[in-house]
Records
---
Amino acid sequence: MYLTHLSLTNFRSFARLDSDVSPGVNLIVGNNAQGKTTLLEAIYYLSTLTSFQASQQRELINFLAARQPLAVARIEAEYQRGERTHHLEVRVIQEPNGNGGVRVRREVLLDRLKRKSSEVIGHLNAVLFLPRMFSIVAGAPAERRQYLNLTITQVDPRYTAALSAYNKALSQRNALLKQINERGGDPGQLDYWDELIAQNGATLIAARIQTLMELEDLAAIAHSELTHGAERLRLIYRPAYDPLTDPANQLSLPLDAPIDRRGYSEGEIAAGLKDALQAARREEIARGMTTLGPHRDDLHFLSNGIDLGTYGSRGQIRTALLALKIAEISWLKKHTHFWPVVLLDEVLAELDNQRRADLLRRLANIRQALLTTTDLSLFSPRLIDSGTIWKIADGRLER
Ligand SMILES: Nc1ncnc2c1ncn2[C@@H]1O[C@H](COP(=O)(O)OP(=O)(O)OP(=O)(O)O)[C@@H](O)[C@H]1O
Ligand SMILES: [Mg+2]
C-alpha cells in the first residue's frame, strides 16, 4: 500500500500542510526542527492511533491553535490499498468541558464515515524505524510489550479488542486488590475480574507466542545476511504466566533452550492463568496488585546465545533491530497481503556502509518508503535519482 496524499491541519508545528506523496522512495531533507519527525509521526498515528512521542493527545495540537478553548488537529491521508483508494482522517479535538476547563477527544473517519478506533487500526499499515528504538532491545520490558502490542494490533483485530478489555480489567482488579488489602472485603469479588484477565490474557499470550515464532524465523534470516552468517539471532518470549505445565522447571533451563508453546490452545492458557491467579491470590492481595499475566511479559534478543539486552554492543543491537524491522515488513506483507509503508527517521546515519546499502537494496522491493535526513549525501546517487526528494523548511514541503 502507499500514500498518495497527506494533509495536516494544526498538527504540531504544521498549521497547514497539503502535499502529494510519491510511491517508491521519498527522501525528506531538512534542517533540525523543521518537522521531519512530525511528518512520520502523523502517518504512524493514522496507522496505529498511537503517537510514538506524545504522552498525551493534546500535545499533538498546534500550540498556538490550542490557546483557544476549541481547537482541532487533523491528519488526513489518501492511500492505495491494493486496487482500492481509501481516505482516513483523524481529528484530535480540544473543547470546553463545561466547567471552565477543556477536554480532548478523538474522532476517526474511514472513507468519510465515523468509526471506532479498533475498526481502523491496521487499515493503513506502517513499519516505523527510529534510532531510539534501540530501547526495544536494550530498554525496559515495557518497551518490548509496547512493540509487540503495536505490531500485532496491525494485523489482528481480536488482539486489539482483547488488549483493551485486558487493560480495563487489570486496572479494576488492581483497584479491588488494593481495596481488599487496605479495608478488607470478600476476596470472592475477584472471581469476575480473574475470569476477564484469564480470557483476554490468553488471547494476548497465544498471539504473542505465534507472532514471535514467525518474527523470529524472518528476523533470523535477515540477521544472518546482515552478519554474513556470523551470528544467529533468536527472539525468546518470557511470559509472566507461562502456559508450560511446569514453569518452575523451565526457569532452570538456559535462556536459549528451544521452547515451542504453540501446542497450547487459548482455552488451555486461560484455564491455566485462572488457576495461577487463584493460587497467587493471597500474595496479590498482600501486594495490592496483579503480578501474573501478559502486562508483565518480556522478550529477549539473543545473538549466538548472548542476551543483547544485557551484553550487546551498540553495533550488535543496531543490527538486531534492523533485522527485526526487516522481518516486520515481510511479516505484515504475509498477513495483510500488502507491503506496509516504511517510515525511517534518520536511521541511515546510524548504520555503517554495508548495512545502509543492504537496507536501501531491500527498500527497492516495497511500494513506498519515507526517509528523513538532514544530510542527503548519505544516500547513493542512484537512490537519489530513483526516489522523490522533498525539502522541508518552515512547515512547507517542496519537491
Ligand atoms: N504541539 C506543537 N505545536 C507547535 N509546534 C510543535 C508542537 N510539538 C512540537 N512542535 C515543534 O515542531 C518542531 C519540529 O519538530 P520535529 O521533531 O518534527 O523536527 P525535525 O525536523 O524532526 O528535527 P530534528 O532534525 O531535530 O529531528 C519542533 O521545533 C517542535 O518544538
Ligand atoms: Mg527529527
Note: The chain has a mean pLDDT of 94.
---
Amino acid sequence: MFIDATKEKMVFDEKHPLIAIKHLQKVFGTKEVLKDVNLIFPKGSTTVILGLSGGGKSTIIKHIVGLMKPTKGKVVVDGVNVSTCSELDLREVRKNIGYLFQDGAMFDSMNIFDNVAFPLREHRKDMSEKEVEEKVMKMLTMTGLDAKRVALLAPNELSGGMRKRAGLARAIIMEPKIILYDEPTSGLDPITSDLITQLILKLQKELGVTSVVITHDMKESFKCADYLAFLFEGEIIEWADNETFNNTKNPHVIQLLSGSGVGPIQFNE
Ligand SMILES: Nc1ncnc2c1ncn2[C@@H]1O[C@H](COP(=O)(O)OP(=O)(O)OP(=O)(O)O)[C@@H](O)[C@H]1O
Ligand SMILES: [Mg+2]
C-alpha cells in the first residue's frame, strides 16, 4: 500500500496520497514521542487519527503543516517535502491547508470577523472588502454560528464551543485542498458535534477536500472516516478503512473502541 515517498518532489494523481508520512521520528529532549510513523492520506479522503492523550497526535499534524521539523524521517505534502523545503515553498503549501487548532487559537486583539478574514487579507489581496465580508459571514453561518451576533465580539466573549466553530470558519475560508482538524468536536454538545461532522463530510464531497481529523469521539469518527489510524507508543499500529477498523481483531483497537481500562494497554501512572 505504501508508495515511495523518498523523492524530493512527487507528482500525485488520483491514486496517490496527497500527504505521505515516512519514518517520522520526533524526540523532545529525551522523550521519543513519535518513533516511526508511516501513514498516507489518499486524495479526497478523510482519515481519523485516534490515540491516547499525550500520544503525539497533535505533533503529527504540526509536522504536516511544517510547524515542527522531524528528528528523522519526512512528510511530503502535495509533492513537496515540507520537512526540508524553503520557507517560500512552505508558504505556498500552507495556502492549500486549513488548520483547526486544538485550542481554537484566535488573535485576542482582533474581533471574530477580523480573525476569520485574516487568511483572505493575507493571501487574497485581489478581493474587495465587500467580497471578504460576504465570505466571512457565509463561513460563520456555515459552522452554525449567528454570524451577525458574533462578528464584532472578541474571542474571549465567546464560549469554548463557539470559538472552536469560529476557528473552523477561519480554517476553511480559503477553500483549502487539505484540512487538518485537531479535535473539532471536543467540548461540543452532541448536536453541534454532528453539525461539525456533517460539515467535514460536505467539504469533502463538494470541494474534494482531503481531511485529517484527530478526535477522541468514536461516534463522530465512524460517521466521517474513510480510514482510521491508531497511534500507539509512537507508531501507527492499525490503519484500515472504516468497516475493517470497526471489525478489527487487534486487541489494542478493541480496547480503544470499548474504552475499557482492562486490556493490553496498560497505564503506569
Ligand atoms: N513543543 C514541545 N516541546 C516539548 N514537548 C512537547 C512539545 N509538543 C508536544 N510535546 C510533548 O509531546 C507529547 C505528545 O503531545 P501531543 O500534543 O502531540 O499529544 P496528543 O496526542 O495531541 O494529546 P491530546 O490527546 O492530549 O491532545 C506530550 O508528552 C507533550 O508534552
Ligand atoms: Mg492533541
Note: The pocket of adenosine-5'-triphosphate (ligand 1) is lined by residues 28, 33, 51, 53-59, 102 (CB under 6 Å).
